[in-house]
Description:
By secondary structure, the protein is mostly helical. α2 packs across α3 and α3 (59-88) runs antiparallel to α4. Helices cover 84% and strands 0% of the residues. The chain contains five helices and no strands.
Amino acid sequence: LFWPGLSLKVFLLLFAAFAFADGILMLLQTVTIKDGRWLGRLAQGILALVAAAAAVVLPGWTLLAIAIAIGAYWIVTGVLEVVTAIDLRKVMKGELLLIAAGILSVIVGFIMIVYPFTGLIALAQVIGIFNIASGIILLVLAAKLALTPHRAPALA
Length: 156
């Protein structure tokens, strides 16, 4: 929340570590599992290692690719929501809410693609705000549970 740039760097390093481990494990599976599907595992292992290396050597380009992938996902999801809402008009009322959600998703997706780094920083801040709010709510719940008298469960 307070250092979104640092959060993105940490995310990138965690992604690189995950991709590296995944690549190594895929390559190990390539030589240990004998089911005739070695080529797919080999390709996936090499791709994961290339992604890990790119995240470390070319962090800006990797973040750009991630931002574009997120933006494209939001655009496709938004279009599908609008199409689904139009189809739902035959069955129910209130489809305008799904149309609004779809349009919002398309708009935010385009913003993410046009301004990828600003979009990622905003996304990191939103995730930070969500985590703080969620943590406070869970702390309140924990306090309420701690003050609740313990009862033995009823036998059925």
